[in-house]
Design brief:
This protein is α/β, with parallel strands linked by helices and 484 residues long. 38% of the residues lie in helices and 13% in strands.
């Protein structure tokens, strides 16, 4: 298997066909998905029909788009007319969207083939992909371990070569953290850069759609195909989209890499070693390493877990068993209140219920100022802290996750689970962009488990972030693709 760009080029040149690529991925999915549980649903017939159409167009000499013939998987909280969209929740078990998300329309216009929908933590609430209503997703490197979350199905599918690339969503690290644990690239764009029309909302001021890929080059291409203003999404920034693919190899001759003091404590030894190696790589490339201070790193988790649940409890209020979704059949539902209560109790899993209750609490009378308003004030301070840091550096380097993948069922305390995102949540809180890159392995447990590093850049600095990420990737010899 090859990366997305190489596969696209092989299809264009006639070295292979889109149908061959689709059949190859479907065969691997049939073989490996019963173990990994990365996919909830595949679109075999539709994918083959699309591939045949693209092959005919290429044979006729027609231009078919920058993603022509490339099979891509979609996280199950991005609506598609094809198949169903469940958010890995019983409450939406039979929901079929009447429209496609904007990113789906743009991928289709670029010639991509949708091969299936991937499992996730229910409503994107989780860091391990264990809260999926259809069972836990497993890490291709070690199937006793988690792939990370909430985009764990997409990350596992890419890592196991069950698709050329996948889409995920990132509210507090849900693309970057599973990318780190699965040894692939995960990119979170700036807030407002990619339309969220058709993304089932979790935290509306935090959510972003982004790619999980084998390489930085693949991530840049997918970003370029999806980015840009959208009249359906009022939060999209009306800014032109730069040609990040064309400029990808134009590495700045001199750039500054910030290394926060707060990112060097409490990590697994292999994670700290990966960051140290990355520092040496950047020094060898001529970068200036700058010590910076991000003292609000430690309060990011508590800030996030006020803002995100507050927004979630509002967004998920629509799932009540009336218009669509699961409706209780309990004989004890005697009135409208009982119908709501039973439907939601049966349809939502424990983690989603926990966050709805937490959000309701922090927004309730007498607690709004103490919690929600204060969290918004700290959010502003976190953004100001990043602005100050970016006055001293061009990108910020650190771990993506404090550890490699842990065993399924190995973290049962919710607070410990939340701390998996300590280095990623502030990226969303500040609305800046970030990318996770494969950076080595943790072999301390006797299993070879990937670890990642994260690069962050200020809002709308995607072109610079991609260039520096690509330079790091090339400096360490590119990517070695894995097979589960």
């Amino acid at each position: 298997m090859s990366d997305l760009v190489a596969l696209r080029d092989d299809i264009r040149s006639g070295k292979t066909t889109a149908r061959t690529a689709v059949d190859g991925y479907l065969a691997r999915i049939e073989q490996q998905n019963p173990t990994l549980n990365a996919y909830r649903e595949t679109f075999a017939n539709e994918a083959r029909a699309s591939a045949d159409s693209i092959d005919r167009a290429i044979a006729a000499g027609d231009v078919t788009g920058p993603l022509a013939g490339v099979p891509i998987a979609i996280k199950d909280n991005i609506v598609t007319r094809l198949g169903s969209t469940t958010c890995s929740s019983r409450i939406l078990e039979n929901y079929h969207s009447p429209f496609d998300a904007t990113v789906i329309d743009r991928l289709a216009a670029a010639g991509a083939i949708l091969i299936g929908k991937t499992n996730m933590d229910e409503f994107a609430m989780g860091s391990s992909c264990e809260t999926c209503a259809w069972g836990a997703v497993r890490n291709p490197w070690d199937t006793t371990r988690v792939p990370g979350g909430s985009s764990g199905g997409s990350a596992a599918a890419v890592a196991a070569n069950l698709c050329a690339a996948a889409l995920g969503s990132d509210t507090g690290g849900s693309i970057r953290q599973p990318a780190s644990l699965c040894g692939i690239v995960g990119f979170k764009p700036s807030f407002g850069r990619i339309s969220r029309y058709g993304l089932v909302a979790f935290g509306s001021s935090l959510d972003q759609i982004g790619p999980l890929t084998h390489s930085v080059r693949d991530a840049a291409l997918l970003y370029q195909c999806m980015a840009g203003d959208d009249g359906h999404d009022s939060t999209c920034a009306p800014r032109p989209v730069e040609d990040v693919v064309k400029s990808l190899e134009d590495v700045p001759r001199a750039f500054r890499v910030g290394l926060p003091t707060q990112y060097r404590n409490g990590n697994a030894a292999a994670v700290d070693a990966a960051v140290t190696r990355a520092v040496e790589h950047f020094k060898a490339m001529g970068a200036e390493i700058v010590d910076i201070d991000l003292p609000l790193t430690d309060v990011g988790i508590s800030t996030y877990y006020v803002i995100a649940p507050a927004e979630a409890c509002s967004n998920l209020a629509r799932f009540d068993g009336i218009r669509y979704g699961h409706r209780t059949k309990s004989a004890s539902a005697h009135d409208l209140f009982d119908l709501y209560a039973h439907s939601r109790a049966e349809g939502f899993g424990r983690e989603v219920q926990r966050r709805i209750m937490l959000g309701t609490y922090v927004l309730s009378a007498g607690y709004y100022d103490a919690y929600y308003r204060r969290a918004l004030q700290i959010r502003r301070l976190i953004k100001q802290e990043f602005d100050t840091a970016f006055g001293k550096c061009d990108v910020i380097l650190g771990p993506t996750s404090p550890t490699a993948a842990f065993t399924i069922g190995g973290v049962t305390d919710p607070l410990s689970m939340y701390m998996c995102d300590v280095y990623t949540v502030n990226t969303n809180i500040a609305g800046i962009c970030g990318i996770s890159l494969p950076a080595g392995f943790d072999e301390s447990t006797g299993t070879r488990l990937p670890v990642g590093i994260q690069l962050q850049a200020q809002a709308f600095a995607e072109p610079l972030l991609f260039k520096i990420a690509r330079s790091y990737e090339c400096a360490q010899g590119g990517r070695e693709f894995i097979s589960a």
